[in-house]
Amino acid sequence: MRRRAPKRALIVVLVLSSLFFLSLNLTGKWDAGWLYGAFLTITGPPQKALNWAEKKVEDLFYSYLYLVNLREENRRLKEALKRLTYERNLLLEQVEELKRLRRLLKFKERTKLRMVPAEVVALSPEPHIRTLVIDKGSTDGLKEGMPVVAWEGVVGRILHVGQRTSMVLPIVERGSAVSVLLRSSRTRAILEGEGKGCRLVYIPRDKEVREGEGVITSGLDGIYPKGLPVGRVVKVTRGSRRFFLEVEVAPAVDFGKLEEVMVLVGG
Amino acid sequence: MRRALFFVFLCWVYLFIEGTALAFLPWDFPPPALAVLMVLYAALNPPLGPFEALSVGLVADLLSGAPFGLGGLSKLLLFLALRRFAYGVEMQRPLLFVLLAFPASLADILLQEAVLLLGGPRSPIDPLWAIASSGLTVALAWPVFYLTRRALRPFEGKGREVFSGLVRE
User: Fold this and answer.
1) Is the residue at B108 inside a domain?
2) ipTM above 0.95, yes or no
3) Which residue from B28, B78, B83 is spatially nearest to B57, judged by alpha carbons?
């Protein structure tokens, strides 16, 4: 037996076809959303079943080997803390808003949103992209682009929708962008994901940005409603040769402990 | 054909279990590149060929939410490079499989990053993250090799010679 290279014509066809699909997809000329949706629909039920089984094993382990009551109470308190943190963030934003509204002597009605609670059932198995899979899909009224939040703040947006599961692009993922406002100074910026954290871009050097300042959604991107907490500024670098500030932001949501989320499905 | 379909299905099962298990691990836990291991397996085990490698990449794209075709292209190029590298050596040895897992995983990440950079500027991947992911890929290389070989045993002696790179004399 001797070896020879695989047929070149076939390889050329395969490379060209993958390049063709990729370029169509990246330039937006072909929307592969339906393909992801179909795949999520097929993958959804076994994924939920496996997740359920894994959760049961985990629950069994923790609930019976460790102190049941303590764990339950801890969970309840953590939930309460998350809820209170969320409410505090909302209130802080409302105070700021109220101040401005009082100055303007106007009243602006806040949008009422319906929330669909969901659980994270899987993460992306590929190292170069971090996405989440949640256990709600088109049958629950979810659509592509809908914002996903947790009690602490913004998680991301729906990337693809299957029948009973959906894929979420988190704000920390590279390539993700959110239109935001700095809570105190009301400076507008774009929040970009960096993999582990986020950064603010397009803030002119002459703007005042303080470490610890809250970052909220501006509502200008048409995806996230205004006033949702996104994170807080952790580092500001003012390079002498740069037009814009370099601002690092720690997300409000602890993605390491993210189990339940809510999808904002509109009024 | 059945072997190819089963191989891609097996890859889907691996990635599917990995994705579900990752939901129980910390967010910072780097996922091992099981799809790369499957491409490596295909490259070192004719008659599995480029079509299977491309399919593995596309399945990975669909499960991860990456742009459709990105993984397909990178896995196909990786397959071709590995097949060329393995030309003339004893291909089906587990040790070779484990040794190649680390560079293959890193090469796949770099290929995908390079393709994405062509589409516009973006933050680079954390090198430590990429290295840790590749390290975990090595840790899982032997179990994946063993399981895959066991699973494909019923298909031994069957396959398409056109993709195999083998010509009988």
Assistant:
1) yes
2) no
3) B78
